[in-house]
From TrEMBL:
InterPro entries: Asp/Orn_carbamoyltranf_P-bd, Asp/Orn_carbamoylTrfase, Asp/Orn_carbamoylTrfase_sf, Asp_carbamoyltransf, Asp_carbamoyltransf_Asp/Orn-bd. Pathway: Pyrimidine metabolism; UMP biosynthesis via de novo pathway; (S)-dihydroorotate from bicarbonate: step 2/3. It catalyses: carbamoyl phosphate + L-aspartate = N-carbamoyl-L-aspartate + phosphate + H(+). Gene3D superfamilies: Aspartate/ornithine carbamoyltransferase. The gene is pyrB. This is Aspartate carbamoyltransferase. Residues 2-146 form the Aspartate/ornithine carbamoyltransferase carbamoyl-P binding domain. Keywords: Pyrimidine biosynthesis, Transferase. It comes from Leucobacter rhizosphaerae. Heterododecamer (2C3:3R2) of six catalytic PyrB chains organized as two trimers (C3), and six regulatory PyrI chains organized as three dimers (R2).
Amino acid sequence: MRHLLDTRTLSRDDAILVLDTAEDMAATQQREVKKLPTLRGKTVVNLFYEDSTRTRISFEAAAKRLSADVINFSAKGSSVSKGESLKDTAQTLQAIGADGVVIRHPASGAPARLASSGWIDAGVLNAGDGTHEHPTQALLDAFTMRRRLFGADSRGRDLDGVSVVIVGDIAHSRVARSNLWLLNVLGARVSFVAPETLLPYGTRDWPVTIHHSLDDAIRLEAPDVVMMLRIQSERMHAAFFPNEREYARNWGLDDRRVGGLADRAIIMHPGPMNRGLEISSGAADSPRSTVLEQVANGVSVRMAALYLLLSGERGESA
Ligand code: CP
């Protein structure tokens, strides 16, 4: 693979390779000097057409820890606002010699278009495209689950038999889709919990169990992982906005529901969180919550992805 565009086409072996390489990277981050020379002389461009906090700073930290030169490009304040096309922007990046392009775009399929266009020679990493996929988020989520559930001895393991309940605005969530495909290939059991209006068309053909009640899902699925999602109002027609009080009551992870989880269960959220809506502060800040671990693990996982795709050392087998 030259590009990381989705998890739907990722094999189990490739997924385990990324997770195990991320373990190697995490070990290097315990050292006093965190920087590795691996990508010295390479240029990574963060090309962001949508807002981001975690993904952007995490890719920047990952590339810098591998000694790459990093260029941060935000569509806001660039010539994109003057109508410049993706093709012309990409060819500009080619002209400055980009080796890797990390792209976030509101249009589903934009990273794949960039990768197959012939406009650039760089490896393309999808940092979230529309409602399609967010593969590095799913990989860092799987890495976090593996570490929390199996401890230090998680290298080489998949997530066979792990019960994962994903709750909220599935319809607009690229995180839910990337997690579904990756968790399936790793052997986990996935359930979606959402009101009917926040489930995407076609879900019933996907390898997932559907619930409309969070209480039912917690009772019936005995989750090892509860992953909460925010309502993505920026992708929603106003007619579909749920009533916030009703939503929090039926689908929010509050302190009462946290009390009903098994002792081993962990609480995940990709961020940004809407505290008091899909998740209470008690749940977000509890010892079960992995929210900040997910952010920290994201650097190791993105270091692994950049290394495997751009170093030319193990990229051929990634
Ligand atoms: N998880 C995630 O994609 O967060 P950001 O939108 O802040 O990058």
